[in-house]
Description:
By secondary structure, this protein is an all-alpha fold. It is built from twelve helices and two strands; from the N terminus they run ααααααβααααβαα.
Amino acid sequence: MARLNREDRNFTGSLPDLKASVKATEHQTKVIDRKIFIVETHFPKVAAMLQRYAVGTAKLRNKGDELAKTIATYAEEESPSLKQALTTMSECLSAIQDQRDAEVSKIEEKLVQGLSVYDTKCKQARNDVRVSSSLSTREVKSFENLEKAQMKSTDRTRIARAQAEFQKASGEANRSLRVLREQMNEFESQKMRDVKQIFSGFVVCEMELLARSMELYTRAYQGLMNIIEEEDLEEFNKSMTLKPTQWGSAPALSNAGRYVNPGNGRENVLEEFGYWKKGYPDYHDVLCNFLSTVSQNFAKTKMDPETLAVSFDPDTANSMDDIDKEILQLALKQVEKTLQELGVRVSQGYKLGYELGYIKGVLEHVLKTVPESEDKEAYMNGYVNGYLQGMLHSFKQGELQRGNCSDNNRH
Length: 411
């Protein structure tokens, strides 16, 4: 007898042929079961390892953020050139951690989730296999009943009913098997697409992190190579130099260059002095005996008058180049003009007196200490503005003598 054809709804062959066909179906079912088992076994493991990989990357990201913050804090305490390089490195490290954070999010939200959904898909596939197997078993039993009816009964009605039940069971089994094969083809196809997408996504994440890291580490490396040791050593040596104690109304040398601010300019000093002057109706002029003021300051600071020799030493002035001399003269003229407009009068014997002599010496020293890379004129303007602020403060505090000034003292 020919082998059973499962598509033949009116099959009336022998039971062995049907069992042979069912055996072929069982083989297909085993192959399907094996495929489902592979996915059920390995996908959860891969998902768990990806999750652990994401956790490890997140920990590395956190450590990287801590390292970046630590380097940034350290950079604030360093010299300019080294500070710039360390700041750049800190920024690069922080940016790399941002890239790692993006990778962690993608692994957790897309890759791990993409594998986790197969837990449900495998359960559904197993249920489909179970339904198909039960229908195949039902088909075999209905065929056995048909054969018994044909062999033991002459009742055509009973035989017809058994044959109808077999045809129904056979049709359901055929449809179930066809649907199962279609579903498993789709299952396998979707599995391969997902595996391709998930692992290619992981590889792309790693390549993006690697490319971004290479870019940022290159920038950090270049920043470190741009450290100028000579400038930082010069800054270090300057910081070890003990600055002389300052006296008078001028600000300390360490504040030179810090007053480059339009709000501290000469015009603002005059305007503020005008407001102050209105509060003193009996104010006529300022008689400033700078010799007395200098003596008082010597007493306060315990400075030796001979230390001012540098202010009047012609060799000091001669050692300056023409540009520095011009800058110095402009600064002194600004100071002198401002003092005169404030109503300051100095004694005849000293012309501009100790005050201008002092500020001249200070400005000469400032010019010598200004780094070549800085704007000397801006430094001078900043220092002069600070000096004028100090002078105004002295007026307000009453440290300079106020009172009527005789004609002999006017010049």
